[in-house]
């Protein structure tokens, strides 16, 4: 009976951690399919945020000149690009993601599938947007 309870407890912890998005993730460029940056996702209170901790491809401009908010002219490396996500079942939603290349900010939804994050940025309705798959960094 104890072995059964221990197995159940370990399985429950495994399932609960599977849906978590905290950690470091490698972003992949849509056009070149090359690794572009490392984003670290972390939790503050009941919300999730993500910042670029490493650039793997040197940008033409190291600052976000196209950003229109508090990130304008700030360095891309160290920039908080994900803000205000909340966990809703297996999804993380309700926040925003900013593309430092264009300076545009989109609504964001993230789901985890194994060692991948499915990151969707969109305007208005979710089907009007773009998705990327980010890979877990060990």
TrEMBL record:
Range of residues in the leader sequence: 1-19
Coiled-coil residue windows: none
Keyword Nucleotide-binding assigned: no
Keyword Ion transport belongs to the record: no
Keywords, ordered alphabetically: Signal
Sequence ranges assigned to domain DUF2147 in this UniProt record: 23-136
Pfam families, alphabetized: DUF2147
InterPro entries: DUF2147
UniProt name for this protein: DUF2147 domain-containing protein
Organism, as annotated: Chryseobacterium gambrini
